[in-house]
Amino acid sequence: MKIEFAKPPAEELSDQPAPPRKAAKIGLEAVSKRKSALIIDDNNSIHAGESQSLPIFMSAFKTLGYDVKLEKSNETIYTTWKGYDIVVWSCSDDYSAVNTTKYMQMLIEYVDKGGRILLESGNVAAWAEEYGETALNRMFRETVLHSTGDWVYHDVGDLKLKTNHPIATTPNALPETIGFTPTDPGDDSGNANAVRILTDATGIYNWSSVAYEGTLVKDSIAKKSYGLIAYDSKEKNGGRIVYFAFDIDDIDSPDIQQKLIQNSVNWLGNGIKVSGLGMNIRLCSLPKPPERVFPKDIDPKRLQLIIMLAQKWVNGTVLHYCFLDQPAEYVGADEQKKVVRDGFNKWKQLGIGIKFEEVANPGDAQIRIGFLRGDGTWSAVGRDLFSVGPNERTMNFGWDLITEDPRGVDTPTHEIGHALGFPHEHQNPKAGIVWNEDAVYDWATRTQGWKKEDTDRNIISKIVPDEVEGSTWDPDSIMHYAFAAGLINEPEQYRNGLTPAGGLSERDITWVRTFYPPLDPTTSTDLTVNTPVPLSLGSGEQRDFTFVPDETRTYNFATEGESDTVMVLFEEKNNKRNQLAANDDSAENFNSHTSWGLTKGNKYVISIRLYHEWVKGDTTVKVW
Ligand SMILES: [Zn+2]
Description:
This protein is of the alpha/beta class. The protein has 14 helices and 28 strands. Zinc ion binds at residues 284, 286, 414, 418, 424.
């Protein structure tokens, strides 16, 4: 339908023509958007002063019409990277490039999610090879650098074209030889690496010569040691990486520097959508603790303290673990079991009083381990595992510990820490963490699929610590999660995220040795028949008693008094303890009582841990 516009009165118009009409304004969507580049400066200036590379990148991107944002590596928040058309991680000649767990995790995940990045570092491959013994280092080397674990040489000549590739030709035809002069030449140079690469990457330029201590390396090695490397994930996730294994400012010609950057940017392409950053964060999710019956009038804080202490084992206890061999979906592959055994070894190596022994029969094991995929990774905490059904799992690993977990052995080490009775360190009220709670709930739902109660139980709720383990906060504890940026409001320095150093921290070691010190037979007290001995213990403390029977018969050991204790009976031969009985599983019956047939003249040790005494100093132990 044609609209008939009303007309003004005809007598109001003159007979003169109006001046030419102005052009219509351009709609907002028609304005071409400027492209944006993020340049991350990871030069901590240890080796050779300020980065000379940044001005070169800035100038190249400005010439290409980009808006350039510059950030320091310790300030950048990787979930913002997807907002840029291109990301450059520049280490220049920094000797210890990409040197934190957090940086490696950010780069691994960005690449894993199909991100495109230009990485510049004259030494990261050598650094990763020389110091790369952890699973995370290896993952970084293989998924970001695409370098082998072979030796990396530093003493190189000029860049020589090896493989025809768009980075060498489009839009600028680069020369066969690119002159290169290290600022600081030789075998310790941070200016260049000769990198051997995995088969999924392309070496575009290698080096005209590669030497060590003034001697050329064999031609066969030099030929496959590259300086300019490209990786294209193709259909896998669309990700691409250009890796300059040199300091860009040591390329002789400023014109070639700019052209090389332009070609690299051209090949990397623009506007790649990276989604789901943060999705491969793997968090342990503890199950609900069992409920115990306590007097109604007890102070809730005190109750929480008692429950937590009650999770600790009697020192000297032998904890048997087994890998479940049925049902089929619980069964783990041998290499997965190996990572878990490595986790047990991390604790064993500390020489603590708790022993771990692997057994085949689930009926003999307190710790029963499954590998049910998609069921999360978790463990019962300490003696809580007695509330788990006799053939059920007390520990589960719900993802591949090798291919899906950058934390590697740290994950089983953390779960075994729970089995030893240790809670999550980030729930320590001494941490003084003030959460951005809405962001934490959102993050946990998005990355873990958790409900609010799961997030409360594993992150938000504070745990009442006892004096020993709660006196300080340890953000590097094996029992501490890593947190993304924006989740912690206070302390302020963790607003950009918190990543524990990895492995057992100094305080983890001190802490476990406090609760479970190496066994010391000289500190035990002799027991004699029908003579009660006061325990004289504080909450959480343990005492060992020695008993040598003068006849072979059944003996009874018991604690008396209004208290909550746990008792373990050992036979001691040749300074080795063999565990006979533990009355650990009677959580409702607070006093301990054990009967056992003992042999005349043999030596027995009775270890008692006091969890709580309702009347101070009232508890005794007796044998009859
Ligand atoms: Zn945990």
